[in-house]
Write a structure and sequence with these properties.
This protein is mostly helical. Helices cover 32% and strands 2% of the residues. It has a two-stranded parallel ribbon.
Amino acid sequence: MAYVRKDVSTLTRTERRRFVNALLELKRRGEYDEFVRMHIDHYAADGETGLRSAHMAPSFLPWHRQFLLDLERALRRVDSSVTVPYWDWTRNRTATSVPWTSDVLGGNGRRSDRQVMTGPFAYAAGHWTIRVGITDGKFLTRDLGRAANPIALPTRSQLQWALDDPVYDARPWDSTAGTGFRNKLEGWGPGSGSASWRNHNRVHRWVGGVMLGGASVNDPVFWLHHAFLDMQWHRWQLAHRNHRYLPASPPPAGDRQHGRIVARHQKLPPWNVTPDQLEDVSGIYRYA
């Protein structure tokens, strides 16, 4: 029977506590840090060589869908009642709204060094030391809204702009694709600075701190953010039933994306699963 992923703002006090406690237990066991390491290992950009599976590629959505499922299964081994909630950043848009409360993720970082001082994931609480990262920092950091150069979270209309594109992805299958739902949702736009950050990317920038870069998994909001993005893929599928994951076939030899992206029936590293197999997860979970 499919379980339910809920909006974090609707969780009961008990549901919030059980979700947080399950995350803390994974951290205590050392399992959580393996998720951070996996994301770093598969965070490859356009300009690098080799296969891109997690970002700047068509497989952005199925890769993170499987990543979420792995984390969720680990949480449910700790507490079978737990599912990953989603953060609707088109509705809960301030630095004091859910999930930035003391009983969920804690609040913003302090002004001096952006260290998070409140909530269960504060370094001072003793349960959330960063051990795997791209810097030597040991504590969780945030800069909600970017105090020095403020930006706003994406709006509902900006999200809808992505959802309205009927084509899943388009050539050249990277961060420069001008059309296609995937890149509009992932959020790589033309130009530089804040105007080029859209949807997914803009949320990472708005949170700031460790959410910038490949070690973003160190902030548990990563999962709530990506659960909401996964929900958008589901919404897109319902709205465009005749359209599927692209490309259907691998780019041929001589194509600059040959060997660099995952086609519909190719395996997604590091798993033995294809994008095709991840398009329908209705038998596993649904969204409330």
